[in-house]
Amino acid sequence: MRTLISTAFISLDGVVEAPGGEPGYRNSGWTFKDVEFLPEAFDIKGREQKEATAMLMGRTSYEAFSPVWPDMADFADYKVMPKYVVSTTLTEDDLVSNWGGTTILRSLDEVAALKETEGGPIIVHGSAALNQALSDAGLIDRYHLLVFPLLLGAGKRLFSATDKDAQKLKLIEHEVYANGLQKNVFDVVR
């Protein structure tokens, strides 16, 4: 079974919306506007590209990343790896042609089936609504969280507010940086 890893920039109060400056959110760009940049705090992002063998995202994140990431040197490893987009509305005609192979999945059952295939880790970028659904369905195996020392208030959250049984996480890697960022890597305990 393949490992499904959710990776996120997240505020201390759980917000993941518009970390890179996406329009329409009051605190857009909070990852670079309000916290000093320290390269070592972002080393995990390079490691993720080297370790992942596929990328999974929701439609909204695909539509935000696909016009930009294919031509960015920082994301070169993602260009060649298989990508999967979970969407009930996206069509083949909506996919970009310069970002490698992309498959549209229509349901969480199809994500569960993908996890059963041969291959290495699948990384989930962005995709707040998809992350919530994957977590609630018990499909996420690991979280890579870069926690920013900010309280953003309103905004899309990584975790749903669904009334469910507690889900235990095991901290397997942790580091705190001089700028206040925390790297937390958790495995989901089953």
Helix amount: 10-25%
What does the radius of gyration come to? 16 Å
Distance between the termini: 14 Å
Q: Uncertain segments of ≥5 residues (pLDDT<50)?
A: none
What is the CATH top level name?
Alpha Beta
> Can you tell me the CATH superfamily?
Dihydrofolate Reductase, subunit A
| Shape field | globular
Order of helices and strands: EHHEHHEEHEHEEE
- Average pLDDT reading: 95
What summary fits the major beta sheet?
8 strands, mixed
* Strand line-up in the sheet with most strands: 4-3-2-5-1-6-8-7
- Broad structural category: alpha/beta
Annotated CATH topology: Dihydrofolate Reductase, subunit A
Q: Would you report the number of β strands?
A: 8
Query: What is the strand content?
Result: 15-25%
Tally of contiguous helical segments:
6
Which architecture would the CATH scheme give at its second level? 3-Layer(aba) Sandwich
* Overall domain count: 1
